[in-house]
Amino acid sequence: GGSEDAGRDLCLRLTSRRVPENAAQKDRTGLPFGVTVQPFKPLPHFPVDASALPDPADEVARCGDCFGYVNGFCGLERDGWVCILCGNFSYWNSDPAGDRGKPRYKRNARRNELPEIALPEYEIEVAREVLTVNPREPLGTAPVYVALVDTTAPEETLELVRSAVLAAIEAVGPDALFGIVTFADRIGLFDVQAAAPSVRRVGLGKDGGLAMPLEEALPLRRLLAPVGAFKEELAAAVETITPAKSRFGSAGFSRLGVDNGTIDGGDGPVSRRAFGPALEATLAWLGADAVETRGEGRGADDVGGGGDLRHPSCRVLSFLAGLPNLGDGALDDEIYRECAADLDSPDHEEAAKAADALGQPRVDFYADAGARAALAAVVVDVFSLGGGDGAAAFTDLASVAPLTEQSGGALYHYDTVGKGGASDAPLPRDVFRLLRAESQAHHCTLRLRTSAEFEVAAAYGAAVPDDVYPGLYHVVRCGPGDCFAFDFRHKSAAGFGRRGDCPPTAQLAFEYTALLPLPPDPATQAARYLRQRRRRVCTAQARVASSPKDVFATVDAECVVSLLAHKILATVEEKGLSEARLLLSDWLVILTSRFNHETGVARFDPKDTAAVDGAFTSCVPLQQMPRMVFALLRSTMLRPRGVQPDERTRARALARRLDPPSLSRLLYPRLSSYADVDTQAFPRHSLTRTAVTTSNGAVFLVDAFDVVVVFYAPAQPGSERASLPFPPPQGSAVRTAVNELREEREVTPRVVYIRGGAEDPSAFHDLLIEEQDVDGLEGGASGFVGFLHTVESQARRFMREA
């Protein structure tokens, strides 16, 4: 069954290569037992493109009892096979398979070379359909994209939005249909296909929705222009998008007074932003009003996905410049004004309560809209364009975020969107990358089967359980980096047995639809797409640990941190921030205690006086665990004080999707140093000012996943260091490293260059997290060293008292 180290490259990553024999041994380790799943991770042998020809799904053998898929871990015999998951014997099918004219398995001398036997991961084809775009009536046969633009944004922000919409038009390709809708206190519909391009305006009615359906104002086929034929007209229309001028009128304000075209929010005029009505009307226009939300079960077994869809694919890109405060779905900043002072309270319990209050959705409108969009296969992305301070910067993303979660869209938040040059800004690049992603999986279903001795106890991530079929999950859209996590439990006290006779095995079945471009129709030159339904199967097996030490030695720390983060974020939603933070710090104390006891460093004994080792000195895989827990407690997601609420919402949404290495980087940045802009000195330092001053580096690069800071150490005027080129020139080692990070990330990191001694270094110092304190830590010790000391003393007390 393959080497123990092979697991890191699979779609499935177990928390340790050797897993606890039973629940009692798991408790002795103090570690979780589970798996992270990255179902759409690129598979080199099975590219998602139209030229790939996976084997048909109905040819691959399945267990007659548990419906698992045959794999290399199963017992293969002449007449049949023994399922590694449930132990059931199934006979091989004797019918000829495919065009070979012979059975696939029975009496096949090369059976062991079949992908499902030879490889731990493989793909098979469930169905395929060629879609030809009708050039005379492309609506319904071509992919659809709509940009929904908030024109209440200031000009410098709108300049970036215009760049982002132009990037979207470039990314979607000539065969797509593209429409532009703007909103402020009225909705603007851009008709670029008319002889004289124009904008139709629709106001709000008295019920909080629009005064008329958008189809009456402008037929959808007129709004959605074929990009190939109308690219210049679309680009010209984008350039005409300017900040909305305030006008008097329109109903639908939620507890806010209206005067002369702006809303009085208490501290002066606030822009009127009818995002809810614009969204609702656009979704209805695209066909998302004729579906019932969350009906009966949506798919049997591992099957699922969209039925008769109105568009081959459909995406709404929403650019939101502030609080949606007009008409349906209107929100106000009352909760922010009530809680803002408490967010910076010296009492961290008060701050945590305020953070909890601001983290709750205040309306169901956006979750309902997202659920309807999902059933109509319309993906809605939200790009939140921050700016301003305090209440002016509050968009209440906690209320809006369910829209993207339910519809499979992406949520982005930019707190400094209007600063810096447009050429370097993340927004246009993020939009381009999102739409240009080589492949996206849509209408996905996911099932994780396990061998008989253990089972899934909980699932985490953007997956929705099926209403009818237990263990089947639906995922609206899945990108290559998207990750989910599952917690396991042993089914009986005996577990896997002392000799490991029942090797722990998990099998992922992930089914999805991909829309892939084909060469044009040879006869008519019409654009064509392949709509392909594919099923990916990944089987992973672990060995059974002989002792807790065995588990410690083979732990996958990144995977444990990922599962832990998912569990803690779920606890935040259920029980609040304070309870989740307490649970996390208690977990580290218990892990430290168990480790010290099992390795003989210190004992569970009231009389034992041995010093506790909180740094896991004898166990390399666990050594990053205290730093990761410290970083998680200090993170934007879990730190009670000093975090802008929308930034917290965005960070939690991002963390729920990230794969283990990316999440580790988001939590604990990497600091490297350079002797000059072309010579790296050290690839990694601890995140302390001491490390910076003693390293003698001239330039430092900190990669914190979504922000990258390049810091030039202060230099004496006239010295060689003072003459280093700033910022680092293209082609230099530092700039090359920065560019590589920007290219490889799905979320473009913001890049900050700082000349030490001449500019504010706080953006750099803020990332040296080992200098910083954890809120509410007893003993008041500072920084990571103080945190570790506190954990050790709490573990010592726990071991004396337990």
Shape call? globular
Mean pLDDT score, rounded? 87
Q: Give the DSSP E fraction (strand runs of 2 or more residues).
A: 15-25%
Task: Tell me the structural class.
Answer: alpha+beta
Number of strands: 32
User: Are there runs of 5+ residues with pLDDT below 50, and where?
Assistant: 1-6, 247-268, 291-300, 418-423
What does this structure look like?
The chain is α+β, with helices and mostly antiparallel strands. The chain has 22 helices and 32 strands. Strands 9, 10, 11, 12, 13, 17, 18 and 19 form an eight-stranded mixed β-sheet that branches. Strands 4-8-26-25-20-23-22 form a seven-stranded mixed β-sheet, with no helix packed on it. A hairpin with a 2-residue loop joins β28 and β29. The two termini are 41 Å apart. The N terminus is likely disordered.
Descriptors for this entry?
disordered N terminus, 22 helices, about 800 residues, 32 strands, seven-stranded mixed beta sheet, single chain, eight-stranded mixed beta sheet, alpha+beta, about 30% helix
Compose a concise summary of this entry.
The protein is α+β, with helices and mostly antiparallel strands and 802 residues long. 29% of the residues lie in helices and 22% in strands. Strands 9, 10, 11, 12, 13, 17, 18 and 19 form an eight-stranded mixed β-sheet that branches.
Secondary structure: elements and pairs:
Layout: E1 12-14, E2 18-19, H1 23-29, E3 34-37, E4 55-56, E5 75-76, E6 80-82, E7 89-91, H2 115-118, E8 121-132, E9 144-150, H3 155-172, E10 177-183, E11 187-191, E12 198-202, H4 214-217, H5 220-223, E13 225-226, H6 227-239, E14 257-259, E15 262-264, E16 269-270, H7 275-285, E17 314-320, H8 334-343, H9 348-358, H10 365-375, E18 378-385, H11 397-407, E19 411-414, H12 426-436, E20 441-450, E21 454-460, E22 464-465, E23 472-478, E24 484-490, E25 505-518, E26 528-541, E27 543-544, H13 548-553, H14 557-575, H15 577-598, H16 625-634, H17 645-655, H18 660-667, E28 670-676, E29 679-685, H19 689-695, E30 699-703, E31 707-712, H20 733-744, E32 750-755, H21 762-765, H22 783-801
Parallel strand pairs: 2-27, 4-8, 9-10, 9-17, 17-18, 18-19, 31-32
Antiparallel strand pairs: 1-3, 3-24, 5-6, 6-7, 8-26, 10-11, 10-13, 11-12, 14-15, 15-16, 20-23, 20-25, 21-24, 22-23, 25-26, 28-29, 28-30, 30-31
Helix pairs in contact: 3-6, 3-12, 7-10, 8-9, 10-11, 11-17, 14-15, 14-18, 15-16, 15-22
